Amino acid sequence: MQQGTRVPVHVCVIRRHQDGFTPTNSPNIGRFQEKSHLVMTGSIQDLDGIESRELEIGGSRCRRVALIDSGCTRTLVHESVCHQWRRSAAEVITVNGQRLQCEGDAEVRLAVPGCRAVEFGRRSVACAATGEETGLKIEKEDFVVTFDPTRRRWVMSWKWAGGRAPGELGGAVDEYPVPEEARAEYEAELENWIRDGWLSEYDEEELGPAMGSIPLMAVMQRTKVKPVMDFRSLNKHVPAFTGDADVCAERLRRWRQMGASVALVDLKKAFLQIHVEKALWLYHTVWFRGRRYALTRMGFGISVASSVMQAVLDLTVAQDPRVAAAVSTYVDDILVNEDKLPATQVAEQLQIYGLESKAPQRASDGTRILGLRFWGEPDGDLRWGRDNDVKNVPKPLTKRKVFSICGQLTSHYPVCGWLRPAASFVKRLANETASRWDDPIEGDLVPQLVEELVASVNATDPARGRWNVSGDTMTIYTDASSLALGVTVKWTEIR
Predict the structure, then answer these.
(1) How far apart are CA 70 and CA 25, in angstroms?
(2) d(CA 101, CA 98)
(3) Tens digits of per-residue pLDDT, 104-132?
(4) How far, in Å, CA of 212 to CA of 219, rounded?
(5) Listed residue (16, 65, 76) closest to 41, CA to CA
(6) What is the distance between the terminal CA atoms of the chain, rounded to a whole angstrom?
(7) Angle at 353 between CA 347 and CA 357, to 5 degrees
(8) pLDDT band at 75 (very low <50, low <70, confident <90, very high)
(9) Fewer CB within 10 Å: C terminus or N terminus of the chain?
(10) Residue limits of the DUF7047 domain (predicted)?
(11) Domain segments of the chain as ranges
């Protein structure tokens, strides 16, 4: 290369510096101590006093450059000399064998003033970028979860009630009866768990005698059969502190403030992406086809599972201020304000911290978010409606079934109009006509009112409306009774 000639190089971006870090995979080790250092594959010829020379990267000059000819396939530059770069999930292997996660990558032009020749290897130059990569840790009253940067995975452990592990867990059955029509799909999914390592055949020599098993069961959903576990015997010994737990309805109110340009990023089998500390596997086993397996991932039914998932997501998005400013999380769902950041970049941030997500779904294209159905209108407004169908009233009607139907009708919907006080009134009547939850409702009044509620919802459902609101002036009408607090909000002539 002639003096001053610029060569395109694919490089990584270093955001923060870690003393003594050396990205190399050969015995010929280089070391750098300054933020503005470049580490690259290749050799520079006839360049005396290289440590005091300058290197030009993308038009920026860097002093005190350390150059490594080590056969390493990674090239690192500091963020300050790279004006445009892409976030990516590449990583570098350090001299001690650890993996350091990259921040991103970029294409830059490289020039060495005063250098007569630069040789690059025949292989294309790969890159990675890193900051101060240390293990992240969350400790709460009821659990501990850590991020392993080497394996890029989260590992949780619950805390026992009273600080002491129990004896053998009691359990009446190993597996609840599975409907014959669901058996094939149920077993196929468990076989996938075994193949993916989520279920690992229990090794008593390594782990010791198993102290309990979690009963398996099959849950038939609208489009699939899902294996789930009954964690009641375990949860008796794992207290859950829910004082800071989020409320779904309140989260939806906050999400409405994010406007119409929003997209959902949903994790793939979110809870099963969290590993369980190996020391706890002896309490975390299941039986399948006559064999005992350790459940190596966190099950949805563990009392602390939702809190763990929420904490992991919150800490993950907090690692990048741009992501933190653009998203709002609820358990395993992430809503992204795309006016601030594309949802694809949020998905890349999750991948950096070992969390796999589905393709982002824009609300305006039609999607489901926290049990609501969304779609966009030609005028740019975002509309929402009910996503569950309540068509048939079960018979005989008991107080438990009345409360269940009323819950499905009103649930966490942000707006229900007349439906919410009407459902409260029906529940009060059910309390007066049946003392126990599974006693049949006496008389015809409550069943008749439930039928009328369901028919009215199917005809003109009040649980719907415009999602995005704007403006800084509104009028609020409110009235309270023993049944409900009614509120009507009016803004810009829209109710």
Answers:
(1) 7
(2) 10
(3) 666 555 554 444 334 333 333 333 334 44
(4) 22
(5) 76
(6) 70
(7) 35
(8) low
(9) C
(10) 398-458
(11) 7-127, 138-376, 389-462
User: What is the average pLDDT across 311-333?
Assistant: 92
- pLDDT in the model for residue 106: 63
Residue 434 tokens read as: 């049946």
Closest CA to 216 of 228, 225, 234: 228
Q: Are 78 and 13 in contact (CB under 8 A)?
A: yes
The C-alpha atoms of residue 59 and residue 40 are separated, in whole angstroms, by 17
- Beta bridge partner(s), residue 13: 77
- Structure-token pair, residue 32: 């750098």
Specify burial of residue 209 (Cβ count, 10 A radius: 0-12, 13-18, 19+): exposed
Place of tokens 């250092």: 37
Encoded amino acid at 357, one letter: S
Reduced to 3 states (helix: H, G, I; strand: E, B; else coil), residue 374 is: strand
Give dist(CA 98, CA 163) in Å, integer.
33
Q: Which top CATH class is 138-376?
A: alpha beta
Cα–Cα distance for residue pair 130/78, rounded to 1 Å: 9
Q: By CB neighbour count within 10 A (0-12 exposed, 13-18 middle, 19+ buried), where does 77 fall?
A: buried
Which string of DSSP letters, residue by residue, matches 297-356? B--TTSTTHHHHHHHHHHHHHHTSHHHHHHEEEETTEEEEETTTS-HHHHHHHHHHTT--
> Phi and psi at residue 227, in whole multiples of 5°?
-70, 130
Quote the CA–CA distance of 362 and 346 in Å, as a whole number: 13
What is the model's pTM?
Answer: 0.66
* Token pair in block for residue 195: 């193949």
Name the 3-class secondary structure at 184: helix
**CA-atom Rg of the chain in angstroms:** 29
Going by C-alpha positions, the residue among 9, 260, 17 that lies closest to residue 130 is 17
What are the tokens at 46?
A: 């006839």
Give the residue from 108, 35, 22, 109 showing the smallest Cα distance to 65: 35
Task: Tokens for 30, please give them.
Answer: 């280089």
The crossing angle, in degrees rounded to 10, of helices 399-410 and 419-433 is 170
Classify each residue of 240-270 as buried b or exposed e, where b means 16 or more C-beta atoms within 10 Å of its C-beta: beeeeeeeeeebbeebeebebbbbbbbbeeb
Q: For residue 123, what are its two tokens?
A: 């292989």
pLDDT digits (tens, 9 = 90+) for 18-32: 433 333 333 332 333
What mean pLDDT is predicted for residues 66-86?
Answer: 51
Alpha-carbon distance of 372 to 466, in angstroms, equals 12
β-bridge mates for residue 145, sequence order:
138, 156
List residues bridging with 108 in a β-sheet: 9
Q: What's the CA gap between 138 and 165, in Å, rounded?
A: 21
For residue 111, what are the contacts with CB-CB under 8 A and spacing of at least 6? 4, 5, 6, 7, 55, 56
Rounded to 10 deg, the angle between the 445-459 and 419-433 helix axes is: 160
